[in-house]
Amino acid sequence: MKRRRFLALGSSGIGAIFLSQCATVRPQSQPQLQSSRLASETYFSRDGLLELDLDARAQAVSIDGQTAELLSYGGRVPGPVLEVLPGDTVRIRFTNRLAAPTNLHYHGLHVSPEGQADNPFLEIPPNEQFTYEFRLPDDHHSVTAYYHPHLHGYVAQQIFGGLGGMMIVRGALDEIPEIQAAQEEILFLKDFDLSRAVNAPDPYFGVQMPGREGSLLTVNGQVNPSFTISSGGLLRFRIVNASTSRFYRLAFENHPMHLIATDGGAIAQPVELQELLLSPGERAEVLVQGNQEPGQYRLLNLPYQRGGMGMMGGMMGSGSMRGSRSPQQNETTPQHLATLTYSGQVEALTLPQQLLPVEDLPESQTVRQFTLNHGMVPGRGMTFLINGQSFEHGQVDTSVRLNTVEDWDVVNTGVMDHPFHLHTNRFQVISRNGQTVPYRAWKDTILIPTGESARIRVAFKDFPGKTVYHCHILDHEDLGMMGVIEMQA
Q1: In the chain, where the domains are located
Q2: For the segment 383-417, what is each residue's pLDDT rounded down to a tens digit?
Q3: Are the C-beta atoms of 32 and 3 separated by less than 8 Å?
Q4: Which of 24, 136, 359, 364 has its Cβ near the most Cβ atoms within 10 Å?
C-alpha cells in the first residue's frame, strides 16, 4: 500500500501542540492513519521511540460557532493521536498547567501499573512536570486505546472539561489485506456543556449521581463532520466513547457495521451489526461498505435509557435536580452525529472473512463476585459501592497472583447501568445472565445493565503491582465505585 505522511489539522483554530518532534513517516510495511477530519495531529514512534512534550491546560476553544474555555492536551480538543508498535518505548514529558492535580492513564495498554508507567495513584501537582516512560511488550496486541486523566476525585470534571486522546497500537490486524485496503477514520465521541466553566465547582449532587452529560455532541472535536466514502469503497472506523457518562447507540443509515475489534483487540471473524452500543470507556473498530446509492447518510445516536430516576426521585425529591440532566431525560429521538458522503467510485473492496484467532483462556482457579450498587456511608452520605464498600485510599480490596486465571462475576443490583473497567489486563466475557456469549472477544470495559450480571475471565500476566477496577461513569468512580487490586509475583 502506498504510504503518505499526513498531519491532520482541525478547524478549531486553537494553539499549536507542544511536541518534541514532527510527525514522522513509517516504513511502507506499516499501515498509517489517513484522515482529514481530526481536530488534532497524529504522531508516530520513530526507531522504536515515541517521545513528546505534552501539557494539560485550560484553553479557549471554538466548537460549532461557540467559544468556551475547555481543558485540553497541548491546546487541542481532543488531544493528539499517538501511534506506536509493539516493543516501542513511550516517553512523555508531561506538564500540568491546570489549577488542580492530575495524571495520565493509558486505557487499553498492557503495561506496568506502577512507577513511570500507567500509574493511577500518581499525583502531579499544578505547574509541575513528570516524565512518563514505559515499553510496550513485544507481543502487545493491536488495539485502539484511549489516554485520559485518572486522579481519583478529579476524573469526571477533567474529562468532562475536554481532556482525552486516542492511542493506537498497530499490529497483525492492520496487516490483513482487506483491512489494509480500507480508508481509516476515527470517531472520538465526546459531549460538552459549553455554558459551564471548566474550573467551576463540581455540579449539584443530583447531577453527579446519574453522571453529568452535555447537550453538545462532538465527533473529533467537531459538530456533524462529514466522512467520505467511494462507491465500492471500504471505511474502517476506530471508535472511542470518550464521554464522562453518555452512552452511544450508534447506527449508520442504510449501512450495517461489520465489527472487527473490541476494547482489547481483534475478534476472529467480522460480525455484522445494525447498531453498536458503547458505554463510557468502551472502544470498537468497524468496517462500513460503500454499497448503497450515492448520496449522504447520517451516523445516528439512537435513544438509550440507562436508568436512575427511581433512585433520584426517592432519595432527593424532584426539586433537587434543578434543571440538571438525568439518565431518563436522554433524548427520545435520534441525534445526528456525523454524515457519510459518497464521492467517486473504486473497484469494489471486499470484507475479510477471517481476522485473528481469539485464544481460549484456561479454566479459572478462582471465582469472585463483584456487586455494583449504591448506599450510605457514614461521614460521606450517598456513595457508589463495590461489594458494599466505597473506595479507600491505601486499601487493597482484591489480591491476585500473576500467571493465574480468575473468573469474576460482576453483578449490578443498583438502579443504573454501570460500565465496569479493569486496568492493565484485558479479559474475555464468558457469559451474560448465565447464558454463554455467542463469540469470544477481548475487553477491558463491560457494560452491566441494571439487574443483570456477566462472568468475565481474566489472565493476570507480566506486571506485578497495584492498580484499580471501577465504574467508567466517571462521577460514579469519583463517588466511590472503585477498588484496588494488587497483582503479586
Answers
A1: 42-170, 179-345, 366-488
A2: 999 999 999 999 999 999 999 999 999 999 999 99
A3: yes
A4: 136
Please tell me the distance from the alpha carbon of residue 474 to that of residue 212, in angstroms, as a whole number: 9
The overall pTM is greater than 0.70: yes
Residues of the chain with pLDDT under 70: 1-40, 199-201, 203-205, 308-331
- What does the pLDDT look like over 436-489, one tens digit per residue? 998 899 999 999 999 999 999 999 999 999 999 999 999 999 999 999 999 999
Cell of 364: 479459572
Place of cell 456513595: 383
Q: What is the pLDDT of residue 379?
A: 77
CATH topology of domain 179-345: Immunoglobulin-like (2.60.40)
Domains 42-170 and 179-345 share a fold: yes
Per residue, the 3-state secondary structure of the chain, as one string, reads CCCCCCCCCCCCCCCCCCCCCCCCCCCCCCCCCCCCCCCCCEEECECCEEEEEEEEEEEEEEECCEEEEEEEECCECCCCEEEECCCCEEEEEEEECCCCCECCEEECCCCCCCCCCCCCCCCECCCCEEEEEEECCCCCCCEEEEEECCCCCCHHHHHHCCCCEEEEECCHHHHCHHHHCCEEEEEEEEEECCCCCCCCCCCCHHHHCCCCCCCEEEECCECCCEEEEEECCEEEEEEEECCCCCCEEEEECCECEEEEEECCEEEEEEEEECCEEECCCCEEEEEEECCCCCCEEEEEECCCCCECHHHHHHHHCHHHHCCCCCHHHCCCCCEEEEEEEEEEECCCCCCCCCCCCCCCCCCCCEEEEEEEEEEEECCCEEEEEECCECCCCCCCCEEEECCEEEEEEEEECCCECEEEEECCCCEEEEEECCEECCCCCEECEEEECCCCEEEEEEEECCCCEEEEEEECCHHHHHCCCEEEEEEEC
Its CATH class, for the domain covering 42-170, is mainly beta
Question: Going by CATH, does the domain composed of 366-488 fall within 2.60.40.420?
Answer: yes
Torsion angles phi and psi, residue 78, rounded to 5: -70, 175
